[in-house]
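name: query_chain
kind: protein
chains: 1
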Amino acid sequence: MPRSAAIAEESGTVHPDLTNGFTKEAAIGFVSEIEAEQAKIDEIMAQAKVDCQPHIDQIKAIKKRAAEQNFEKKAFAAVLSKRRHERKAEQADSALNDEQKEKFRQIELFVDDHPL
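structure:
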């Protein structure tokens, strides 16, 4: 157990020197706010999962048809994955202004020879 936790457990309070001066109320307040926002995100994501399911089922059916026509499953999935990543990269690039694109190119040159 960390020293601060042991001290808090012994005394029932946390010494301000161990908390950088924040209070229990502030900690509870921030945690509560974040948890409330996360609950909203979780609700949206749960609904999105429901909304996406018909599309996921359709993609599975299309992949099954492709496999029935002798498309090798792993190779076909790899092509789809690569194309999806390339689309995302293109979208990220198009979101940059000219100055940001130049900085991107500079950074890219620095890391080009660094292995993935």
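note: The first helix runs from residue 3 to 11.
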